[in-house]
From TrEMBL:
SUPFAM superfamilies per UniProt: TRAF domain-like
Gene transcribed to yield this protein: ZW9
Chain segments annotated as transmembrane: 12-32
Classification via CDD domains: MATH
InterPro entries xrefs: MATH/TRAF_dom, TRAF-like
Protein source organism: Arabidopsis thaliana (Mouse-ear cress)
Record keywords, A-Z: Membrane, Transmembrane, Transmembrane helix
Name of the protein in question: At1g58270/F19C14_8
Amino acid sequence: MYSEEKKSRNYGSIFVYCFFCFVLIVEVARFAKPYINLQNLIETEAVVEEGFMAVGNSGNLPCGSSKPSSASVRAHDEQKLSQAVTTDTRTRPPNSYCVKFQSFVTMAKQVKENGGKYESRPFSVGGYNWTLLIYPVIYIPTDSGGYVSIYVRVDNSSLITNPKDVYAEITFLAYKSSTDKYQISQETEAQRFHLFKQQWGLLQFLPIYYFENPAYGYFFEGESVVFGVDINIVKPFENWEVFSNEQNIRDPIFEWRLTKFSTRFLDSYTSDSFSSGGRNWALKVYPNGVGNATGNSLSLYLLSDQSNDKGYVEAKLRVIDQIQSNNFEKKVAAWPNATENGWGFDRFLSFADIKNTSKGFLVNDTLKLEVQILSFSKTDYYSHQSSLNVLTGDST
Ligand SMILES: *[C@@H]1O[C@H](CO)[C@@H](O)[C@H](O)[C@H]1NC(C)=O
Ligand SMILES: *[C@@H]1O[C@H](CO)[C@@H](O)[C@H](O)[C@H]1NC(C)=O
Ligand SMILES: *[C@@H]1O[C@H](CO)[C@@H](O)[C@H](O)[C@H]1NC(C)=O
Ligand SMILES: *[C@@H]1O[C@H](CO)[C@@H](O)[C@H](O)[C@H]1NC(C)=O
Ligand SMILES: *[C@@H]1O[C@H](CO)[C@@H](O)[C@H](O)[C@H]1NC(C)=O
Ligand SMILES: *[C@@H]1O[C@H](CO)[C@@H](O)[C@H](O)[C@H]1NC(C)=O
């Protein structure tokens, strides 16, 4: 009895233990995954920050072992994830400039006496001159195996005469002959260049060992390597539009007397134009109806004098009761009818109601039509050259 009981309790506790272990493993995996991703991002961020700091501060090369990477530590602490460099491969060649080194190793030796950097000759992108700067070997952090650093610099002569911000999306490339593709590092946000920040790049573009051993696939035609850059100047918008609603309309009501109603023989009649809310309008009536309403209802529309007006209009259309003031009214709240280029109803008021004398619509063969404009939308267009002036108003 006793041993039997103990055995079953043992099975129970083993099960509980196993279940606990399983839950623990699942939870650890769940927490570890985002943490690893986050770490990668912070790492990348540190590279960007550091690259700018080192070059920006000293004004010349961020070379040698003098500077331990304090910037890297700081970036870790801040955990700022706003900027990130993404890496990828692509077949399309650089769109701004390319530098081919017949022998990367020889160049690296030669530039040692030149501040450790190779500077390309100027090339023009977006109305500015730029140069591509390549540091073939940078040991930051000090204990790292070394990196190739790469920067672009905007020529400051035009910025001195006309100080302004230049936004550019930058992608650095290195040709990988083994796959016949380019290895790319791309900043997700456009970089801002200006008089006090003329240079931007990646301190740790690619590890130096990629360019020391042909096995990594970056060499071709012997020891040749190629670096390149895309600079896409991002200009702010120069044209825009503002869509708004005009309410509290000035002179909202217009009345139109349609005399000799029973002898009207044309398909449609249009009133004189009238001004309401600063715009010109007119009423249009089909005494015998139009479309589906032909022969049974009066059709009534509000028209805008602006051809091709596509705005939204709210208005009340009425036929006045000339005896008891029991007016007939329908509200339109719509975009315009494409056929009419106006707002209204084909079946507005039936002939039966118009001819019913007790309703008071037709008196002395005269109909009194009325419109009350409640609101209309408008679109104003602006252009940078004349940003204070409306170019063409009201959705033309
Ligand atoms: C770019 O460089 C060329 C040649 O050095 C020069 O003629 C030109 O004025 C420069 N353009 C700008 C915008 O600085
Ligand atoms: C303009 O660029 C040159 C060359 O990079 C540099 O020597 C000079 O100090 C810069 N001038 C200003 C005002 O930034
Ligand atoms: C637009 O107006 C025409 C009359 O010109 C009419 O036949 C048609 O039904 C109207 N369309 C709409 C959607 O109201
Ligand atoms: C009006 O006529 C059109 C065809 O011309 C038809 O599609 C529509 O359903 C009709 N509307 C009414 C309310 O009878
Ligand atoms: C005329 O209008 C009155 C009041 O609206 C209504 O009672 C009467 O039935 C209508 N007559 C006809 C012939 O429709
Ligand atoms: C209708 O016309 C007659 C004369 O033509 C006029 O005496 C009468 O006042 C008019 N009625 C209305 C409601 O305008």
